[in-house]
């Protein structure tokens, strides 16, 4: 399996700022970035008084970039959580990931790609047979229609190859800007931001933007960071949203960037209770990929219908055959 590339899409520039240390805002944590089941603790950060002065643009850029640096230390292994070996597989997997988990997609795609390894093969698939293969991902009729359409378009308009341009990708059935950015950033090394539900939720909690529209969110966040950071920034934010900063009950008391978060206190602040809310490798559980990349500190996920291994803290053998749980 080819290693995913670390870069991400957009055309906007970024504000440059000199970082300064603030001795009154310290982050306390135990780092276990290279071991599954890492425990983190955070020093509480009081909310700002209601009459506090609005944050300046320069202060926002500094705080945003500091959060990115902290996330980079916490998740040095951040990566796309879909199994893929080429741009076509990543494109298909990303389309299938709508309204379901990456784990369920990863458990479904081995049989799918064995049956239809190329766009030409998938374009010629029997619709009912294709639907049955992707049924575990949900909304299988609509997704099958998109896969048949995009595969035919790749065959007829792009010589059976996935194009490496945003403007071309978004013309494919079922492919929007978010999916295009995932493919460009991780299969072609073209910088871009993946504004999914996790990304949008966290950047609004951190007050980086108040926008709800994904394209407006993408534009405002792109302006805060150098273009070279966009893809990895997306991975780090999505990792944090899945593991710590959950939608309904964020683990504030176990969050290492709590001192930088203006929304601290929306979730569980007791460190022991918050630690129990951590997920995937942070909570000592398997991740979402059946074949995680080298350096991932957690356990590989189990194939569809299999039981996850009991020892979730053992290191992963990234060279194991597809679907291997050990």
Strand-helix topology:
Elements lengths: L56 H18 L12 H10 L5 H14 L3 H5 L3 H8 L5 H18 L8 H4 L7 H12 L8 H9 L8 H9 L7 H14 L27 H5 L51
Helix pairs in contact: 2-8, 5-6, 9-11
Unreliable runs, pLDDT <50, ≥5 residues? 1-44, 46-50, 309-326
Give the end-to-end Cα distance, rounded to a whole number of Å: 17 Å
Number of strands: 0
Measured by DSSP, the beta-strand proportion falls in under 5%
Helix/strand-derived category reads mainly alpha
Number of helices: 12
Share of helical residues: 25-40%
Quote the average pLDDT.
Answer: 84
Summarize the main sheet: none
Radius of gyration: 20 Å
Order of helices and strands: HHHHHHHHHHHH
Tell me the overall shape. Answer: globular
What does this structure look like?
With 326 residues, the chain is an all-alpha fold. Helices cover 39% and strands 0% of the residues. The chain is built from 12 helices and no strands. The protein starts with 56 loop residues before the first helix and ends in a 51-residue tail after the last helix.
Q: Which terms would index this structure?
A:
single chain; 326 residues; 0% strand; disordered N terminus
Brief overview, please?
The chain is mainly alpha-helical and 326 residues long. The protein has twelve helices and no strands.
């Amino acid at each position: 399996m080819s290693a995913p590339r670390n870069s991400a899409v957009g055309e906007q520039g970024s504000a440059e700022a000199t970082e300064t240390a603030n001795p009154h805002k310290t982050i306390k944590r135990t780092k276990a970035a290279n071991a599954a089941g890492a425990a983190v603790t955070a020093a509480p950060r009081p909310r700002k008084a209601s009459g506090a002065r609005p944050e300046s643009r320069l202060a926002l850029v500094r705080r945003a970039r500091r959060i990115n640096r902290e996330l980079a230390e916490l998740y040095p292994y951040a990566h796309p959580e879909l199994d893929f070996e080429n741009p076509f597989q990543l494109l298909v997997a990303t389309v299938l990931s709508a309204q379901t988990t990456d784990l369920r997609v990863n458990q479904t795609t081995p049989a799918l790609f064995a049956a239809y390894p190329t766009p030409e093969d998938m374009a010629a698939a029997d619709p009912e047979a294709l639907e049955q293969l992707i049924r575990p991902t949900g909304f299988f009729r609509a997704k099958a229609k998109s896969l048949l359409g995009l595969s035919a378009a790749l065959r007829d308009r792009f010589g059976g190859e996935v194009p490496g341009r945003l403007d071309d990708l978004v013309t494919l059935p079922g492919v929007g800007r978010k999916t295009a950015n995932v493919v460009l950033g991780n299969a072609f090394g073209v910088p871009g931001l993946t504004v999914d539900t996790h990304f949008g939720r966290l950047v609004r909690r951190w007050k980086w933007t108040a926008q709800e529209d994904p394209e407006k969110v993408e534009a405002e966040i792109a302006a805060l960071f150098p273009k070279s950071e966009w893809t990895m920034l997306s991975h780090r934010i999505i990792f944090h949203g899945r593991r710590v900063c959950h939608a309904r009950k964020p683990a504030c008391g176990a969050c290492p960037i709590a001192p930088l978060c203006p929304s601290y206190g929306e979730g569980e602040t007791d460190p022991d209770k918050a630690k129990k809310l951590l997920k995937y490798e942070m909570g000592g559980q398997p991740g979402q990929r059946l074949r995680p990349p080298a350096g991932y500190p957690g356990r590989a996920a189990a194939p569809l219908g299999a039981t996850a291994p009991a020892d979730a803290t053992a290191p992963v053998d990234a060279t194991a055959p597809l679907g291997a749980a050990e």
